[in-house]
TrEMBL record, chains A, B:
Keywords: Aminoacyl-tRNA synthetase, ATP-binding, Cytoplasm, Ligase, Nucleotide-binding, Protein biosynthesis
Chain's gene name: aspS
Designated name of the protein: Aspartate--tRNA ligase
InterPro entries (UniProt xref): Aa-tRNA-synt_II, aa-tRNA-synth_II, aa-tRNA-synth_II/BPL/LPL, Asp-tRNA-ligase_1, Asp-tRNA-ligase_1_N, Asp/Asn-tRNA-synth_IIb, AspRS_core, GAD-like_sf
Homology family: Belongs to the class-II aminoacyl-tRNA synthetase family. Type 1 subfamily.
Domain (Aminoacyl-transfer RNA synthetases class-II family profile) ranges: 141-556
Catalytic activities: tRNA(Asp) + L-aspartate + ATP = L-aspartyl-tRNA(Asp) + AMP + diphosphate
Role played: Catalyzes the attachment of L-aspartate to tRNA(Asp) in a two-step reaction: L-aspartate is first activated by ATP to form Asp-AMP and then transferred to the acceptor end of tRNA(Asp).
Entry GO CC: cytoplasm
PANTHER family cross-referenced by the UniProt entry: ASPARTATE--TRNA LIGASE, MITOCHONDRIAL, ASPARTYL/LYSYL-TRNA SYNTHETASE
SUPFAM superfamilies in the record: Class II aaRS and biotin synthetases, GAD domain-like, Nucleic acid-binding proteins
Residues binding L-aspartate: E174, R220, H449, R490
Assembly behavior: Homodimer.
UniProt subcellular location: Cytoplasm
């Protein structure tokens, strides 16, 4: 090795030892004939000392020629430091340098290699290898490695086998857009990159593998957002001879183990809520349950505390629903108006906001005092189980739309009240998803999860009666309002799978052509099976307390799907195109 | 869970317990009112017992309706078995079945799901999910999982970080053919799938990650052979601030650890041989060192024991070289003739074979007695250090070609003499590879390893004088004659890298366009670094004692790059082509 130690391991126990360290020049202070140099590597920072009169002249000269990010090798004796530095692990010692070698000089980096950098997003993406030098970024990837390690350890221990499934597979019409790969050996034909190893993991169950997992790259050619990447990583799992209950328990165990090992947090048991309840109580299938603030309906299926008092907005609404912003009765008129403007923005699109102030003195003041008596408003306050000092915020309109708007308002109020602490974690299982959802535009039914998801046995009859009411044995895990994983019990009988494709508008021929291999496999003894997949990038970002998954990917792509560091994608040669038997369309030339 | 136990865990300790097992029907014997059923899952086989008079009639009836590979659930009591079966772990017990459920019936499989199957390659590939049910195949993949686990454990323990590098990267002209992926968001442009994460792992070193690894899919669009797949898996590694010696020691340690953990074998220290010596002594840069049988030159650089005696073939040859087939003096004339025919086949192409029999009685008989006296042949025998009973097999001709032919002969003789025992393992480092090799056809120099490999410091001067003589700090690990891994110390200085591209025929612009990001990175403080990659599929096949890597890949492709199970690649829709701004060339339609 070119070094005897790393920059993170020397302490008082090493004093008087001769050592060789290698690393990058983080900082140099040259003052009064003394030079202090912070030498950095992945493991830490160690201070090098040079002193006029004591350090050889040529070494001093070399030291004075160093710039930031030079790569050097320094040999010298470990000595006790006079001014200790508590902030770093090696703060008790420094190295009196006797020999110094420049292994590679460095141009001045285009931004500061510090935790707080002056580089913008674009420049840091272009010089990603420099951005990765920053502790904060490197630590994200070290965290990612730890999450993967503990995930594997947990699953290995439960007899799961990691099996690699192919990356060059077949394009299928269902789901998101595929990336495709022209085949040179089969001209005119294409592979597709997998959106998930779904069918392969099911085939592994048919093959009797019993418990499978894989931490695996998947690909979706979708328009990108901040939290989406064309290639992403999944923790992909499948089990045989299990019920939904077994899958929930197994993977709740995994998530709790990860919280314990990675964060040192003892995550409580993960509560379960049905999709229907999640929508009713939070207006979202991924509610943030770090805080309660559940929806209360003033007018809905169960009751009507608002109609017939002359307030047309509520009279015409299918749903009148609100939240209790507890302790906010003191909000000024300005604050409430500002909230009203916020919720009327086009992104949310509410028509207006009704408030009821339950003042600390017990009096009630609302924006609809004109229509409702204090007596009537008291009933509202009771419905909300509100206490003096609370503020009720109420929306009305068509059911689904209003719930979605109120979900936004709930999250906003939660944030304003500091109820969404990034260091606090609440996980939740959302279960009993609808099997199907109707695409108005396409005028057909779509699988809400995917076409391999099993209806709940008690709902199978509804497949012939009311498709919208069929519930699936499907489940999502939500942490702090973010969907981190989801899965389902699978169909394992050919006839039901055939019927499912029929419902989704496949002709018998199309179904056979696209998924015949799976339906055929079901005829040779397929076991009952179920599975789940976690978004690994997202999970890491949750553990790391960051919003963007990009911070947890070594070499991410930008919103146009470009890697600006290597400048990809790019044109390829005519010879390559010819060999692959494809042409670039004129429109793109 | 649908079961209380697996089919591999019940023993006498469970007698009298009520259990539920799930699995596949392996075999049914129905005789004299008794039915014995072997129930199989991944974990083993358990015998189920049904008995007329004791077993409920409906259960008996169901049992009699079962066929091979039906998936069933059976509930009953564990009882001690009268006739124990030593061959299976559960051989002391059986289950007296009280309840029996058919979870899924099965059609008769197209081939036997047994260790010895009657299915040919094609049918087993098409029904790969059935082939994977066979113990022998499934165990290969379980072994693969174990190799991955121990690899990760070893590297994690040495502070290597697993970092995922991108799959959608940039096409580069050097090396094998790329698979490409048209970009919808960047019409007319393409990603490429990585042949290896080479440049990314080097950038991770520039980023200060110090020690990186990844078990990662790589892609090469090459014409396929039995041991090649378009997608394959690598153990990819890189280290900073190290010399070649450190890499060899680190990964020799890994391989020895794997042998110890996976095979229970204490692999001896791995010897090293230079490329030059490997070619001289074995005629191959991946010699099988399970047996000696090194080449002996009768005419070469150091001596000439053959010229001037009237044997024109040897007189005209640049090299006369042979091996000692120890103990084979008893080979009949027919056997030697057959060997001669074997080596004259077009695949090998030798002109002929000269033999020298050193008989047990000390007499010498050769096929060139006409030209060489016993005295002269004695000298040959001495050169080979042969003993009575040995047989010398000698080839002659142009140096490189003759060595390659003799390598084939050496391996063949080794096989015939039983010296290539698949249960015996000999690893070897081959070092000091040439940096460059000349492509006669293209009339230019190619990097023997890749363009990022560093010349040996003492040979750098030769870059301006004699390119063919420059040795690289490159190394391969060879086990039993198979190259399982290779790597090199990398260039980390921009100027040397630039020069290397120049030697390889890149213009300055081309080098900058293709690899500018890496050369630029070298200007910002790149550390000295080196790395290695192991062929993971190949390594697993070595541990599994099989010749083909296909047996260690869950869903391999055939020699035309097709997955015959899912029927991929396939045509894609016109809509997809249009969205991707590409067309299929007329020639392929």
């Amino acid at each position: 090795m070119l070094r005897t130690h790393t920059c993170g391991e020397l302490s008082l126990g090493h004093v008087n030892q001769d050592v060789v360290l290698c690393g990058w020049v983080q900082r140099v202070r040259d003052k009064g004939g003394m030079i202090w140099l912070d030498l950095r590597d992945r493991y830490g920072i160690t201070q090098l000392l040079f002193e006029e009169g004591k350090t050889p002249a040529n070494v001093l000269e070399t030291a004075r020629s160093l710039g930031r990010e030079f790569v050097i090798s320094a040999k010298g004796a470990v000595i006790e430091r006079l001014a200790k530095n508590d902030k770093i692990a090696t703060g008790d010692i420094e190295i009196r340098v006797a020999e110094l070698t420049i292994l590679n000089p460095a141009k001045l980096p285009p931004f500061l290699i510090e935790d707080e950098t002056d580089g913008g997003d674009d420049i840091r993406m272009k010089y990603r290898y420099l951005d990765l030098r920053r502790n904060v970024v490197r630590k994200n990837l070290q965290l990612r490695h730890q999450v993967a390690r503990y995930t594997r350890a947990y699953l290995d221990n439960l007899n799961f086998i990691e099996v690699e499934t192919p990356v060059l597979i077949k394009s299928t019409p269902e789901g998101a857009r595929d990336f495709v790969v022209p085949s040179r050996m089969n001209p005119g034909e294409f592979y597709a990159l997998p959106q998930s190893p779904q069918t392969f993991k099911q085939l592994l169950m048919v093959a009797g593998f019993d418990r499978y997992y894989q931490i695996v790259k998947c690909f979706r050619d979708e328009d990108l957002r901040a939290d989406r990447q064309p290639e992403f990583t999944q923790i992909d799992c499948e089990m045989s001879f299990v019920t939904q209950e077994d899958v929930l328990n197994t993977f709740e165990g995994m998530i709790r183990e990860l919280f314990s090992k990675v964060k040192g947090i003892d995550l409580p048991e993960v509560p379960r809520v049905t999709y229907a309840d999640a929508m009713r109580l939070y207006g979202s299938d991924k509610p943030d349950t770090r805080f309660e603030m559940q929806f209360v309906e003033l007018k809905g299926d169960d009751r009507d505390l608002t109609s017939g008092k002359g307030f047309g907005v509520f009279d015409d609404a299918g749903l009148v629903v609100g939240i209790n912003a507890s302790g906010c009765a003191g909000y000024t008129r300005k604050q409430v108006d500002e909230l009203t403007d916020w919720i009327k923005r086009p992104q949310i699109g509410a028509k207006g906001l009704v408030y009821v102030r339950y003042n600390a003195d017990g009096s009630i003041k609302s924006s609809v005092d004109k229509f409702y008596s204090e007596e009537e408003l008291k009933k509202w306050v009771e419905a909300f189980d509100a206490k003096p000092g609370d503020l009720l915020l109420i929306l009305s309109g068509q059911g689904d739309k209003t719930r979605k708007q109120l979900n936004e308002l709930r999250l906003e109020i939660g944030s304003r009240l500091g109820l969404r602490n990034p260091d606090e974690y609440r996980a939740l299982w959302v279960i009993d998803f609808p099997l199907l959802e109707f695409g108005e535009e396409e005028n057909r039914w779509f699988a809400m999860h995917h076409p391999f998801t099993s209806p709940k046995p008690e709902d199978v009859d509804l497949l012939d009666k009311n498709l919208g009411q069929v519930r699936a044995n499907a489940y999502d895990m939500v942490i702090n309002g973010v969907e981190v994983g989801g899965g389902s019990v699978r169909i394992f009988e050919k006839e039901l799978q055939r019927k499912m494709f029929e419902i989704l508008g496949f002709s018998a021929e199309e179904a056979q052509e696209q998924f015949g291999f799976l339906m055929n496999a079901f005829e040779f003894g397929a076991p009952p099976h179920a599975g789940i997949a976690f978004g690994f990038d997202r999970l890491c970002s949750i553990f790391g307390g960051a919003d963007s998954i990009r911070d947890f990917i070594a070499f991410p792509k930008n919103n146009s799907g470009r890697d600006v560091m290597i400048d990809s994608p790019s044109a390829i040669s005519d010879a390559q195109l010819k060999e692959l038997a494809i042409k670039v369309a004129e429109t793109a030339q």
